[in-house]
Give the backbone structure.
Amino acid sequence: MNPADISYLICTHLDEDHSGNHDLFSNAEFIIQKEHYELARNGHPRLNANRESWDHPSLRYRLIEGDYELLPGIVLLETSGHVPGHQSLLVRLSETGTVLLAADAVMHHSMANAATRQMFVTDMEDEPGIRRGTQKIADLAESENAAFVVYGHDTEQWASLRLSPAFYE
Ligand SMILES: [Zn+2]
């Protein structure tokens, strides 16, 4: 599979470790929270590193406001906190069950408890937002009986996950 074969690319946020090479996905629609896209387009310095790649008139963006079912079984979850308009993802898979992709709403399994979790150095100064997003992921993991939550930067967990070209179905 090539980047040009991808139809949808879900942007959790545009920090430099979560964006880049957008121009390679020539047929993709980029799905992003409106709040985050506008923050970035308005020139927020934090989101400058990959601007050349993601801020280009040839790219098709779909701006989402809040939670949104993109396709049957693929639900975007607004989890502002790490940055305004950050989004996570819920995916319902036929064999695996429900998987939550927390991205940087919850970077590591040690941060999964909303009440006690630490803030991270790259979290913007929105502690209530971060705790709200963490709780939202935890509540959904429970109510959806999720198979697992994928954390944004969890080296230990990463070693246990199937990595491309392997996949979950
Ligand atoms: Zn990150």
Notes: The CA atoms of residues 1 and 163 lie 15 Å apart.
